[in-house]
Amino acid sequence: QVQLVESGGGLVQAGGSLRLSCAASGTFFSINAMGWYRQAPGKQRELVAAITSSGNTNYAEPVKGRFTISTDNSKNTVYLQMNSLKPDDTAVYYCNYNAARRSWTRSIDYWGQGTQVTVSS
Question: For labeling, which of 7, 34, 36, 101 is most exposed (least CB within 10 Å)?
Answer without folding.
Answer: 7
